[in-house]
Amino acid sequence: xxxxxxxxIIGAGHNGLAAAAYLAKHGKKVLVxxxxxxxxxxxxxxxxxxxxxxxxxxxxxxLRPDIIKDLKLSLPTPTEKxxxxxxxxxGNHLTLNAESIKHFSEKDAARxxxxxxxxxxATNILDIAYSTIMPRLPKNMSLSxxxxxxxxxxxxxxxxxKDMLNFIRPLPMTAQELVEEYFESEIVKAAxxxxxxxxxxxxxxxxxxxxxLIHNWLNRGGLSHVNVGKASEITNALSNVxxxxxxxxxxxxxxxxICVENQIAKRVMLASGEEISxxxxxxSADPKHTFLQLVGAMxxxxxxxxxxxxxxxxxxxxxxHWLTDGKHSIPxxxxxxxxxxxxxxxxxxxxxxxxxxxxxxxxxxxxxxVVSIHFQFAxxxxxxxxxxxxxxxIEKLAIAALSEYFPNLQSLISASQIITPLDLExxxxxxxxxxxxxxxxxxxxxxxxxxxxxxxxxxxxxNLYLCGSGVHGGGGVSGAAGRNAAKVVK
Length: 490
Fold this sequence. Notes:
Layout: E1 3-10, H1 14-25, E2 30-33, E3 45-47, E4 53-55, H2 65-71, E5 84-86, E6 94-95, H3 98-101, H4 106-130, H5 143-158, H6 161-168, H7 175-180, H8 186-197, H9 209-220, H10 231-244, E7 248-250, E8 255-261, E9 264-270, E10 275-283, H11 287-295, H12 302-309, E11 317-324, E12 334-337, H13 341-352, E13 361-367, E14 370-376, H14 387-403, H15 409-412, E15 413-419, H16 421-426, E16 464-466, H17 480-489
Parallel strand pairs: 1-2, 1-10, 2-7, 5-12, 10-16
Antiparallel strand pairs: 3-4, 5-6, 8-9, 9-10, 11-14, 11-15, 12-13, 13-14
Helix pairs in contact: 1-10, 1-17, 4-6, 4-9, 8-9
């Protein structure tokens, strides 16, 4: 006999927990099943040894303010935005603010406030779009979906023609084209463009990085990461509120199959052989894993399977964490190694050919004695070698790059933890090591995410829904995808 619930959520990442909390708040009997022994998915803080605690994958982050308000979550609110600093060989590092920019270009310093206003208005509009349930275009939409789209159109109209055009126009642009419209200093342009390629297998000369710049700015709430070293506070708060609403969480409960009968999702099967039934099943795993592994191609229409197989993941992020004695002299905030746009593009070029960037784009954050490196580009699929052999190379390249700016860094490292794209897949369940569950590209956003015709969290299998980062509103830390899925289900 199987245990029965109103709703089963597969995966205790922040989107899965957000969806579960909303549904439990509305009286649903909810069970969250997590493969690992801890909750959080990629939004997790882990210990790798004594005093060696890090945000393993996502760096800090923050949920959308309306989610915090809706669920009455107890989460810290940053009172001051950390600095965003671009390293310079002469030690005269650029901090992205008008005063620091003035040392590189007075003209750019004068235009900085205008650029910030533009991006803030664009992120406000994108946030509204992410709060809207996308209809199944070009399929027939329901009345509720049409109403949501009408509200989005009204919000865009109220933004004014100028702001609306200023939002739409940059989306297909390259980050290089966008920053060149505002700034003349190569150092300033490269620092801003680095935000656009963070987490994506794209270079600043790739079409659509205007969109990813706005997306990443929205998720960070600005330039730099917030709540660094505190990623688990987000998912722990969601876990606690879910339990307060009567929801359940089971860890070390890996789902290996979504059981389908007559095109209806009926129950899930765990690796232990246990089966649990539910009226509704919601997967926060990425779409490829959900459909091709958990459901199985035999249960799905051939055309749909082909579209799922065509989803672009292409992860190229590695993480390097170091435990030091704290005397590394790395400034607090978000530190980037992005000297020129050409440098960033060449770092991306290596990934296009299945190679690890010898001169990588790095993003550095610190938390106490811990130094964390976001390393790009390290492609999931290597042209030669394998990640078992190449793992240590990532660390050596990161040390070599940063030692030019912090000469004593290597001697201060007492322990390290390297997370490759393969580790992201095997440990954290991110297919192809893609931290966004699918590349944020123009053919994979809004009503085309995860695939055209299925952008409203529903699937060809009745009672099966998606709520992870691979759907509209996902990518990074926000919780929007989980919240939106709960709206559809309830």
